[in-house]
Amino acid sequence: LFPAMEKVGFSKEHGPVAVMLSEHTAGRGFVQALGKAVLRYKESNHEDSSGILTPARNYIALLRDHIAKENEILFPMAEAHIPEERRRELLSEFNRVTNEKSGKGGHDEFREVVNELKGIYLK
Asked: Mutual orientation of helices 15-43 and 53-69 as an angle, nearest 10°?
């Protein structure tokens, strides 16, 4: 999506594309910190959980804001400026990559896991 937006005049250094790219970098940092904290937790025989909550909460907050920005700002701007034919091509490319990475119906499996976890932890 970002290269398509750049092609129609959006800057990668400023504006919505730059914000999204910056947040992707921040998100990867939170996930990396969370992974290291979980590894420390496992290596300490489940005694040192001190570093888990902060990156997890930061990532959750980032994702909530990020998804809202995508839905309320980025996607409407893309829809308004990227020609319809190119948007259809992007959707087709997205679906192809999704199927390659997670298999056909992969999102359904992810949703099932999320619903299962909700049932366990949100009682």
From this structure: 160
